[in-house]
Amino acid sequence: MAISQEFAPPFKLIAPFFILGGLFYLVASFFVFGFSLEDISHFSPKTIAFVHLFLLGFVMMTIFGAMAQLVPVVLEVGHFGVELFYAIWPLLLIGTLLMVFGFLYSPALLPYGGVVVLIAMMIFVMEIFMTISKVEKLTLVMSSVLIANIFLFFGIIVGLLMALSYAGTLSLDIPSLLKSHIYLVIGGYINVTIMGLSIVLVPMFTLSHSFSLKPLSIAIYMMSIGVVSVVLSTLFHSDILANIGYFLALVSQFSYIYIIYIIYKTRPRKDNDVYAISLMFAFFSLIMALVSGVAYFAFQNEALLLVALWLLFFGFFGFMITGHIYKIIPFLVWFERFSPLVGKQKVPMLVDMVPYRSSQAQLIFSAVGVLLVAFALLFGVESLLGAGASFLVVGAFAFFRSMLYMINFK
Amino acid sequence: MAMYTKEEIFLAISTVIDPEVGFNLVEMGLIYDASSDDAGNVKVTMTLSTRACPLHQMIIQWVKEAVEKLPDAKEVDIEVVWEPVWNITMADDNVKKALGA
Asked: Does residue B101 surpass a pLDDT of 70?
C-alpha cells in the first residue's frame, strides 16, 4: 500500500520532542519546590531559570514536535526538510540546559546556551518558512503560522542580545529588551501558534462546523499589532504605545476565547474526555490569568502579575499542550503501528490507547496543583506553595506515565 | 446495467471505520454517492469531516481497498469533494445519539 509519509513523519522523529517535553514538565514541577514566596519575583534569576525550563524545555519542545506533524496537516503541503527536526531537539535540549544552569549558577554560560537555542530555533523557523513557500494561497490559519514564526525569529534575536548583556558581553537595556522578548515569544509566537492550530484541531476533534472565522482573524491581527506596539514602545520609550499594545493583546485574547466558546457550544461531539476537560481547564486558567493581569494594571500589585503569568504558563499553555498530547501521540502511534493492519485484523480505536486512570490522575492532580500555587501567590501562604508543588509533581508523573503507555501501546 | 448497486457499494465501504470517532464512513455520512458500470468499474464520491484530516490519503486507500473486495470490481475511482461541506446532520441517527449531538 503506497501511503505517503508526507503528512505523518516517522514517529521516531517526533517521539524525542514529546518525551523530553514530558520530562521537562516533570522537572519544572519539581522546581516549584525550590521556591519560597520571599524569593519569587519576575526578575529573579531563579524565576527566569524556571520560566526558561518550562517554556523552552516543555512548551517549545512539545510545540516543535507537534509542528513536525501538524504543519503539513495545516498547510496541506509536505515539509521542506522534515529530517531537520532530527537536529532541532538535541540542540534545543543542550541550549535549554545551558541557559537554565546559566541563570542559576553561571551567567557566563548564557551566551553559549543562547546561541545553541538560537541555532535550534533558526533551523525550525527556516524549515517552516521554506515549507510555507510551497503553499500557493495562504488561508488565515496558514498566515497565523507565518506570523508566529516571524515573531519567533525576532524574539530569539532579542533573547540572544539579552543573554549577551546578562553575561556582560554587551551593555544593553535589559528591562526594555525583556519586555520585547516576552511579547515577541509568548504573545507573538506561542499565543498566535496556539490560536491558529487550535482552530484546526479543536473543531477536528469535536466535529464542529459552520462557525465564522472572523473572531480568529480579529484575535490574530490584534495580537500581532499589539506585539509590534509593545516592541516599538520599548524602542521609543512610549507609554502610550505600550498601553495600546496591552489593550490590543487583551482584545485578542477575548476574541479568541469567544470563538472557542462558539465551537464548544455548537460541537456535535459532547463526550467530556480527558482532552475536552483539559481544554476547559486551560481556558478557565486563561480567563483567570486575564482577570489577574487586568487587576495588576489597576492595583500595581506584583502578586497579581505573578498569578497571571503562572495561570497563563502552567494553566493555559500546560493544559492546552497536555490535552492535545492525548490526541496527537495516539494518532502517531496508531498511524505507524496499526494503520497497515486495517482490513487485515482488528485494530484499536484511538481512544483505546489513552490510559484512563493515569490521564484522569494527571488532570486532577495538575489542576489542583495549578490552583493551589495560584492561591499561594495571591494570598502569600507558603504552605500552599509546597502543597501545590506536591500535586503538580504527582500530576506530572501521571502525565509522563500516560505518555509512555501511549507510546508503547501494542 | 450496473454491476453493483449504490447500496452494495455502500455496504462494502461500511467496513471502513474512522479510528478517531469509532464509526464507519457510511454511517458518518461521509460517502455521498457511489455507482458502477456494467464492466465493474466503480466510482465513489465522498468527503472527509475536515479538510485538515491527517488520515486523508489513508482513508481514500481504505475505501478503495474495501470496494476492490467486491468480487467483480475492476477500476475504483474515488473522488473527494468539499461541497457540500460535511456536517453532523448528514450522519445516521445512531451516530448523532452516540455523540450526544
From this structure: no
Query: Count of H helices and E strands in chain B?
Result: 3, 3
Is A390 a member of any domain? yes
* CB-CB under 8 Å, B51 with A76: yes
d(Cα B37, Cα A145) in Å, to the nearest integer?
46
List pLDDT tens digits, range A222-231: 999 999 999 9
Please work out, in degrees rounded to the nearest 5, the angle formed at the alpha carbon of residue B32 by the alpha carbons of B26 and B36: 95
Chain A residue nearest residue B101, CA to CA: A268
Q: Letter for the amino acid at A313? A: F
In B35-74, the residues whose Cβ lies within 8 Å of chain A are 49-58, 61-62, 65-66
- C-alpha A55/C-alpha A185 separation (Å) is 10
Using a cut of 0.80, tell me whether the model's pTM lies above it: yes
Q: Read off the DSSP letter of residue B86.
A: P
Which structural domains are found in chain B, ordered by start?
6-94 (3.30.300.130)
**Residue keyed to cell 503553499:** A135
ipTM of the complex: 0.81
Q: Residue A302: give the domain boundaries.
A: 292-410
